[in-house]
Amino acid sequence: MDGNCGTQRELAALRGAILGWHDENARDLPWRGEGDPYRIWVSEIMLQQTRAETVIPYYLRFLSRYPDVQALAAAPLEQVLKDWEGLGYYSRARNLHRAARMVAERPGATFPADVKGLLALPGIGAYTAGAIASMAYGLPEPAIDGNQVRVLSRLFGIRGSTALPATKKAIREAAQRLLDRERPGDFNQALMGMGALVCLPRKPRCENCPGAIHCRALALDIREHLPELPERVSQRLESRAVALVYHGERVLVRQRPEEGLLGGLWEFPHFLGVRRKAELREALLEMGVTPRSIQKGPTARHVFTHMIWEMRGYVVMAASGESPSGRFVTGPELEALPMATAQRVYREEAMKAL
Ligand code: SF4
Predict the structure, then answer these.
(1) Rounded-to-integer distance, Cα 130 and Cα 250, Å
(2) In whole angstroms, what is the distance from residue 48 CA to residue 44 CA?
(3) Cα separation of 144 and 126, whole Å?
(4) pLDDT tens digit sequence for 310-354
(5) Alpha-carbon gap, residue 131 to 45, rounded angstroms
(6) Residues 142 and 278 reside in one and the same domain
(7) Which ligand 1 atom lies nearest to the CA of residue 204?
(8) Is the Cβ atom of 158 under 6 angstroms away from ligand 1?
(9) Which of 39, 67, 253, 274 could bridge 241 with an S-S bond, Cβ 3.0-4.6 Å?
């Protein structure tokens, strides 16, 4: 069987084996069997870039705070970002909030019930639209995430870089042909579950796989060569000086612009390429802060998808508690602000000091 062939009988047998496996082995996750589009949407957005085990407590807390789309739409963005803190990739939270406001304005505050309408909402791409359409509305739509790409390319022996349109098309066609039209939501979850539990990137557990007797990659012994993923862009290393600027019982923070990396979050001022106290003094003077003293503080490292921040902290005593480009806050105020996980170490330091 490859991307273009496979008899109907063979496809039916494979489909049945996968669903049977799912019914017995599906992970007991809080969003499993969920039929409400709002809840499915929240779980799917959280699961982008984040492991299920990490998502579970966030998902439960988020839904208790925002039980429906109106509650989310009515919340201030800053509070939503605060509740997202620790999950990272904050553009997901901002899009979630924007989309909630759009849905809340629709008649009855209902979600669009087809892929086209779902795709019109911010933060919803082909995968998430397929997941909501199949799980909430039972529509025969594939939901192709990284796990599905791996499982499908191996089952069907699909070669070629997954960045190429032809490979994407072959994977999509395979997903559409294999999809169970009676239970599309369960079937999508079954393929994702296989990717998470048996068809692992390295050392797939083929002996436990419901698709083993149909698997092209297993038959050809090319399992670990598929999928052919494009080379990762190497990560850029950036040195940054992070300033914990105190005045009395308060510390200086500033808000990042809405657009771009960590948009809308609060942070301690930090400066690219600054390595010496004299350079830091200059940088602080430029932002309207006059340092009285500067001491070295802890170092920290944060890895983003395309970049690594190597951070050196500095503890700065300021001559005044005013800055035109930031705000001096107390310990409780600092605790309440949504801040980037990248600076968690420095927030802990500041909380100890305040
Ligand atoms: S048989 Fe092995 S390689 Fe093929 S789908 Fe199953 S786990 Fe993946």
Answers:
(1) 48
(2) 6
(3) 8
(4) 999 999 999 998 888 899 999 999 999 999 888 999 999 999 999
(5) 10
(6) no
(7) 7
(8) no
(9) 274
Q: Are residues 201 and 251 in the same domain?
A: no
Q: Are residues 262 and 243 in the same domain?
A: yes
Residues spanned by the domain of 347 = 236-353
Question: Could you tell me the CATH number of the domain that includes residue 76?
Answer: 1.10.340.30
Into how many domains does the chain fold?
2
Q: Ligand 1 in contact with 215 (CB < 6 A)?
A: yes
Ligand 1 center from residue 219 Cα (angstroms): 10
The pLDDT tens digits of the residues spanning 175-223 come to 999 999 999 999 999 999 999 999 999 999 999 999 999 999 999 999 9
CATH number of the domain enclosing 273: 3.90.79.10
Q: Is 165 part of a structural domain of the chain?
A: yes
Question: 212 CB under 6 A from ligand 1?
Answer: yes
Q: Which of 10, 44, 286, 322 is catalytic?
A: 44
Could you give the CA distance from residue 270 to residue 123 in angstroms, rounded to a whole number? 29
Beta-bridge mates of residue 228: 161
Q: Indicate if ligand 1 lies below 6 Å from the C-beta of 39.
A: no
Contact 15, 180 (CB under 8 A): yes
Task: Please give the distance, rounded to the nearest whole angstrom, from the Cα atom of residue 52 to the centre of ligand 1.
Answer: 21
Atom number in ligand 1 closest to CA 205 = 7
